[in-house]
Amino acid sequence: MNNKIDLQQLACYVALMKHQNVSKAANALGLSQPTVSLSLKKLREAFKDPLLIRSNGRMTPTSRALALEVEIQEILHKVDALNKSEASFDPSTSEAKFSIMCPEFVEYYLAPRIAARLEKDAPNIKVEFKTSNPSEAFDMLDKGVLDFRLGWWPKPNLMLRTKILFRDELICLSRKNSDIPQKLSVSEFINTRHVRLEAPRNGVSTMVIDQAALKIGEKINIALEAQTIFNLAKIVSVTGFLACIGKKVAQEMQQQFPVEIRPIPLNIPEVRIALYWHERTHRQSSHVWLKNVIETEMQAISQ
User: Fold this and answer.
1) Of the N and C termini of the chain, which has fewer Cβ atoms inside 10 Å?
2) What phi, psi does 239 have (nearest 5°)?
3) Alpha-carbon distance 266 to 244, whole Å?
4) What angle, 0 to 180 degrees and rounded to 10, lies between the N-to-C axes of helices 33-47 and 22-29?
5) pLDDT tens readout for residues 97-106
6) How does pLDDT run across 163-202, given as a tens digit for each residue?
């Protein structure tokens, strides 16, 4: 067998044998359908057998696949046993250090909740929040200098696990009681000067707005780039500038600054925030603990 087989491919094999459906196997593993399909392709090449054949709306195992199933499950059981050597992880006594990369507005909501959990359950664990930098994040995850990323990658690397935790809509923020119409025309939105976060903090949300403008042959009029999302609200509150941010954090800003929310008159997708972590740390008990904490707190934020 010349082809190398990794643990993710073996996990995909077991899930496919159980569910006999690529979509259901992907959901069970927390992977994308293309990732599972690619793993199946590589397994077929490695074992020189189709392994699962489409029949009557499902995937039927070949005799070779059935013969391999017990051996592959034993391999995964042995790996799980090795991983359980770290099962003694106890947040109440651990001195582990973690790093999380996320957009500023996510940190605004998530960090106080993480702090409360540390204070209650993990007095010696340290968590560092890092400035959002999508272009560097995968390399940092791959090298182990970053544990988790919250954000959005349209096409994440195949070595990453992912789970969507938060959805929102982008809106336009303007000064309260300004002369700007409540319902902006495309021309008014494009030509009014904007303030936005500097790169790399601005991320995917800024990109989708720019792309929507380019589709109609226009370009957003950027007057100023700021370093923090709450500075955007303060700048908007004392100028005629506009800012485009998520609705949830905009509603928070309305309580602190004289600003108003308006719809963006362009066809743009929703804001999605997913959690990403490396396949290497997927079964590491300390990472599993923090991943569960992040998921639980992000779900509470989303309500």
Assistant:
1) C
2) -140, 180
3) 12
4) 110
5) 999 999 888 9
6) 999 999 999 999 998 777 778 999 999 999 999 988 766 6
